[in-house]
Amino acid sequence: MGFINLKKMHHSVWISQSLPVLRFAAEELSSYFQKTVGVPLSINSNWQTAGFILKLDGGIGDPLDDYFQIEEKNETIYIIGVNGRSVLYGVYRFLEEYLDICFVHPWYEHVPLLTNEERNVSPLSVKASIRKRGFNINPSGPEFLDAAVKQGYNVCTLKFEEWETEKERYWPEILKRDMWLDVGGHCMDAFIHFKDTFRDHPDWFGLCEGQRMDKQPCLSNPQIIDLFVKNAVDFCRQNPQIHNLTIWPNDNGHGCQCERCRALGFNQTYTHLMGELQKALKHQGIPITVQHSAYNADLDWDMLETIPAECTVDTLIAPWGRNYSHSLSQDKTPRGQRFKRIIENWAASCKKNGTTLTMYEYYGDYWMHSVLFPALGHVIIEDAAYYKRLGVSMLRSLNLRYNGTVASIYALTRRPLPKDASAYEYNSELPVMWFNIHVLGRALWNTNASYTEVTQVYCAGCYGSYAEEAAALLDILEKELTPLGEFSTRLFRRRFADVWFRDVHSLEVLETLQEWSPEIEQMEELDDCIQAAAAVRNRLGPILKKLSTLSGDLADPQYQNFLKLTDYFRFLMVKLDSIHKQYRAQKQIVLRDYPAALSLLEDALMEEYSIRGHQAKDCENWIEKLKVLLSS
Description:
By secondary structure, the chain is an alpha/beta fold. Helix 7 crosses helix 9 (266-283). The strands form six sheets. The protein has an eight-stranded parallel barrel, surrounded by six helices.
């Protein structure tokens, strides 16, 4: 422990090896040091006269883990990492701890000017709790990797097609941050070429509803296995930058029902296919691992619940349709208990077979959470601790951004996407989604992290003098909006905010969303939605009234951040009131009280207009129908 004067110390940095990641770490340290202290750092070839020493030392721990040390000796600051990226993480931690920098999101970092040049640098040793911390954002771009590493993530996860088309842009950014690269997704077609292969060999594909279809391959077919393995090995040989390949089957319910596939079961044939690929890669000396997925695709739980007796490849579990009202360890609902039992069974299987377990979460998924997007800080902190106890080696979360999900819902409901759809309603990525990303990054480094401490540090950097109010608002968003997400798990394909569609999923019906009509309404379900919208709206009302009394300097970027958060609350009040009126109107239509329904929809339409709401067109259509009914 020692005091050091940042303005009087040697303003140079020495790196132990000329590696891209160490050079980048030195550049980052110099850049931010100059912004805060006002003095640039030069690269020093003599470690004895350097003010900072950035050193890679594989002897201080397992190089597969991320671990760094920070200490001050004789007015020199040492940042030592067990691997290259750990040195970079050490640099970012130094900037946060001693220069009061806060990395909020790609469009805002709090970088204050130094007011006190004296710093007491205490020895610090930090090891990440979860070895692999996956960053997955869509739509994506290489520019997001900068924020990802600053938040603590170390795995760049890309869709197969994104890597194939953008590798020249991604790889330099991945390399200089020493990140792991995970490529995959629903990409089996890339190695089988469904349509072309089906044309020549329809018998290699799934037998479904009495006929061969090009929707899924027949995974017990030896020719398909050979074709898949050959093409996948060729791809891996041509892309040695990849560390892990995650290949998921097509996301549909057309699994093969031939006699062999039915006898073996889908998971046995699928994991066998992945195992054959892993064996071939090992035989060829290609050090890329292979991962299979287990998730309830197309509402079929068999892929999650059926665990092969021997599974030789690593496992990824995606609990699609999970209820985020509670952390998984505390969820007492039947679906939550089911997920918990499944995950614990897979964890035991992985331990027995000597394979690894990855959890694929949806903390940043606007498709699952809808425009009523919740903060999930408490859930994330508790989930990370639970997954650590299970021995999870990687935790990644899908951050499916607002604009992408808008396009998805229009496609799913077979409606044309408005040209300016991205300007509709409210994009809460900056105040909420990036908060979830930040909390997860911190929790993955320290699964014993305190929610209060993580949130306070984040809010101090993001919101400044409004930090206390902002922390309270984020807490309220989690408390009030996550129960609405529970409707998404009960209604499943339809979210709470999808007022004018109903899920009619059955084994006979593949197109599961139908436009609302009185004939398919479930009155008990409708009453629940009406009550839930009113309850949350009524509780947010007094909070919004209190927010209206706050003011600040519009030129202050931290106040601007706070306004984005409060604007989201204002949007929520209008949207929830509109949703409430639309559900009430549906009930009146079922009861054939058309004048009451018309009045409610006319009010809701004005609210939808005020926020450029996606339900405006639905309100207009039903207002027209009601006017026709009333005139006749």
